[in-house]
Each structure stands twice: as C-alpha cells, then as structure tokens.
Amino acid sequence: MKSALEFERECLPCYGRVLHLCERMVGSRAQAEELAQDTYLRAFQKRLTFRGESSVSTWVLRIAYRLCLDSCKRQQRQLAWPEGEVVDEAAQRAEQARLYSLAVLSRLSERSRSALILKAGLGLSYAEMARVLDVPANQVGVYVQRARKEALQIARAEGLL
User: Fold this and answer.
1) SS3 of 6, please?
2) Terminal CA-CA length for the chain
3) How far apart are CA 47 and CA 7, in angstroms?
4) What are the C-alpha distances in Å from 102 to residues 3, 83, 99, 128?
C-alpha cells in the first residue's frame, strides 16, 4: 500500500470499527473521534511500513488500540456511576445499561477491557485479536475468559447482579 489512493481504498472501510473500538476504550464519543482521526493520520504516515502480515483492517485496529491505551494511561480516569432520571422508562433502562457497561469497562484491567471490546464489541476472531493485542493466539481465549470473570465480579460488587 504505497499511494494515497490505495490507502484510502483499503483503510477507510474499517473506520466504523476503529471508531467503535476507540469509543469503548475511552468512553467518550468526542475523544474517540479524535483518536480515530489520529489513527488514520498515523496509518497514513506509516503506510510504507505495512508488511502485509495481517489484514489492513487489523493493522489499523492495532494502531487505534495502541493510541487508546496511551490516551487512557495519560488520563487515568474512571467513569462515575450514572445517576439521574430519564422520562421514558425503556430509554432510561437502555441508557442506564449503556452507562453501567461503560462504567464496568472502565474498571476492568487494560487487558480485560481490550479483550471484551475486541471480542464482544467488534466481533473479531481470536486470530485477529491476537494480532491487535500483539499476543500469542493461544492466550486470547484465556484473556476473554478472565475478562468475563472480572466484569462479573465488578458487576456483583456494585450490586448490578
């Protein structure tokens, strides 16, 4: 992938997945959009170094993942537990569930949060996850199991289950 046109044709179709990953990792749509833009800028700058050992989308997701980790490390923040009321009962439950999910995700270890987002949020295969996380493929299943267990423990501790 050498030309700008090739880059655009191969990388832009996975923008939605990149944005989804970023939003789940950092918890803020605005910050996720900035990180997604940074991802594509970095990918464009590094396009000549792409070796083709994975798919272009996996390569771009790996860049996004690393940028999100860096951002989270800089901020070291946690989401507050949601409070307040929404008029529509169904909308209220859906919004509370979304906010609780984000709050639980923010309390997970980096590895667990990443594993759940990549598997449940983006639907990546274990092989793709291994490339994004830069870990051996046989470890990914263990990461996902531990992440589910950790999320369950947090939800129970907070009285969500």
Assistant:
1) helix
2) 48
3) 7
4) 38, 14, 5, 23
Taking only the tens place, the pLDDT of each residue in 101-153 is 877 888 888 888 888 888 888 888 999 899 888 899 889 999 999 999 998 89
Residue 39 near residue 60, CB atoms below 8 Å: yes
Rounded to whole angstroms, what are the CA distances from 11 to 57, 85, 132, 152? Answer: 6, 41, 15, 35
Q: Which domains does the chain have, with CATH numbers?
A: 1-77 (1.10.1740.10), 86-161 (1.10.10.10)
User: Could you tell me which residues come within 8 angstroms of residue 117 by beta carbon, excluding any fewer than 6 positions away?
Assistant: 21, 24, 25, 105
| Dihedral over alpha carbons 70, 71, 72, 78 (to 10 degrees) | 170
Burial call 19-38: b when 16+ CB within 10 Å, e when fewer: bbbbbbbbbbeebbeebbeb
Q: Both tokens of residue 83?
A: 């409070």
